[in-house]
Design goal:
UDP N-Acetylglucosamine Acyltransferase, domain 1; 12-stranded mixed sheet; alpha/beta; Hexapep; single chain; 15% helix; 10-stranded parallel sheet; 339 residues; Udp-n-acetylmuramoylalanyl-d-glutamate--2,6- Diaminopimelate Ligase, Chain: A, domain 1; flat
């Protein structure tokens, strides 16, 4: 799909300097620009590239004044970085704007969907599923019985949504994610074996949530596992049964959260963090990567280590950790002298 400089300027409310009919069909970095591509210049460190770039169109700040001759057509805007981000979002909407039901697929007669619905081939939609407007479900996806999916949600190829799950508006669920699988519930019996505890709750995902590829969110034993609005989950995260994650919390890859833990809003959790079960973590908490959390955490704490310490305490202690061999050697020398 091609766009002219004039069309792009209209989307961005910018001013064309150069050829308004210049056409682009791809995006590029300014240092890697080629004919037919669109790029942007926001960081002054990259100013020299604008005189060399082969990109057909370049988005720049209003304040930019070229010092040498340029071949690229300019689109001047108030903030080049924000404008380019807006354009990326617009481009993504066009790219993902599929409509219709492909074959083969299974769409149960009792299921309903809104306008501008897309269902990719080899997908399955169960009984009594309710799907909103402008929902996109890509090929090889599974949506179980009694699931609700809100407007403008995208479910990418191969995602699995188990029965009774509730998904809000404007959510994105990436490939391979599994939402609503059984929680890890087993009880030992008199023979030393384990009997499965039925997991009869569900998962509730509120609006504007992003769930990364191959992330798993388990259904509750009773009640609901809840992901509040605005939460952003990276790839390969495990969220156990009855966990609750507060609004606008972000969690990086390979983090594991054990059952019934409650995490507050506006938290930032690094990669490979392990959080034990039945804990309460306050609002605004920051947990550094590879930390292990085994206690309740108050609001706005910053933690690192395993088991996690206060961030400042950890850094002070680490100075001594790395000097332990030297410290031990000095202690042994002092013991010899005292003897």
């Amino acid at each position: 799909m091609k766009f002219t400089a004039e069309q792009i300027a209209g989307i961005l409310e910018g001013e064309v300097v150069g050829n308004p009919n210049a056409e682009v069909s791809k995006l590029s970095k300014i240092e890697e620009g080629i004919d037919g591509s669109l790029t942007f210049l926001a960081n002054p460190k990259y100013n020299n590239y604008i005189y060399e770039t082969k990109a057909t169109i370049t988005i720049v700040n209003n304040t930019f004044v070229p010092e040498n001759e340029i071949s690229t057509t300019l689109i001047k805007v108030e903030d080049a970085y924000k404008a380019f981000s807006k354009l990326l979002e617009f481009y993504n909407q066009i790219k993902l704007n599929k409509v219709g039901i492909e074959v083969p697929c299974v769409l149960s007669e009792s299921a309903s969907h809104g306008d501008h619905f897309y269902l990719g081939a080899f997908s399955y939609i169960g009984e009594n599923v309710v799907i909103g407007n402008n929902v996109k479900i890509y090929p090889n996806s599974f949506v179980g019985d009694n699931v609700t999916i809100g407007d403008n949600t995208i479910i990418f190829a191969g995602a699995k949504i188990y029965s009774e799950t509730v998904i809000g508006k404007n959510c994105t669920i990436h490939s391979g994610a599994v939402v609503g699988a059984d929680g890890f519930g087993f009880a030992p019996n008199e023979n030393g074996e384990y009997s499965k505890v039925p997991q009869i709750g569900n998962v509730i995902i509120e609006d504007n949530v992003d769930i990364g590829a191959t992330t798993t969110i388990d259904r509750a034993t009773l009640g609901s596992t809840v992901i509040r609005k605005g939460v952003k989950l990276d790839n390969q995260i495990q969220i156990a049964h009855n966990v609750e994650i507060g609004e606008n919390t972000v969690i990086a890859a390979q983090t594991g959260i054990a059952g019934s833990t409650k995490i507050g809003k506006n938290c930032m959790i690094g990669g490979q963090v392990g959080i034990a079960g039945h804990l309460t973590i306050g609002n605004g908490v920051k947990i550094q990567a590879q930390s292990g959390i085994g206690r309740n955490i108050k609001d706005n704490e910053v933690l690192q280590g395993s088991p996690a310490l206060g961030y400042a305490d950890y850094n002070k202690s680490y100075v001594h950790f790395k000097n332990l061999p030297k410290i031990v050697s000095e202690i042994q020398e002092l013991k010899k002298k005292n003897n």
